[in-house]
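Task 17 of the worksheet. Students: predict the tertiary structure of the chain below and write it out as structure tokens. Keep your answer in the requested format; marks are given for formatting as well as content.
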Amino acid sequence: MKIQTKRQLGHARRGLSTVELAVCLPVITLIVFASIEACSLVFLQQSLQTTAYETARFAVAPNSVSSTAIDRGSQIITDRRIKSATIELDPKNMEKTDPGTLVVARVTAPLNSNRLIPAFFYGDQQLTAEVTMMKE
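Model answer:
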């Protein structure tokens, strides 16, 4: 019968730690990167919502011009470094829109061109934010 010494037990524990690290490290890394990507997705969605709100707010003001509202939305998109976003107003011509008309501002951006990590977790999606306000 062989008796294990303290030296032999320490070596076995080191091997167990190595195996534990080899199993857990990829899982922890995956969780960290998925969390970063989720936070980026939430930031993008919130930025699109803010842009749609500001665009609609400028569009419904008295004597507003469509190009001024879209320029305001474009400024927010530029400030937030959102790529390939589109801004739409419905109705398109604010100058001829009567007070009391519902105005819809819609902002869309592709997820692929606005992510930090290459396409891995959420695939290729289009994020859209929409705000409806009444023309003053």
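Marker's comment: The chain is about 50% helix and 15% strand. The longest strand covers residues 102-110.
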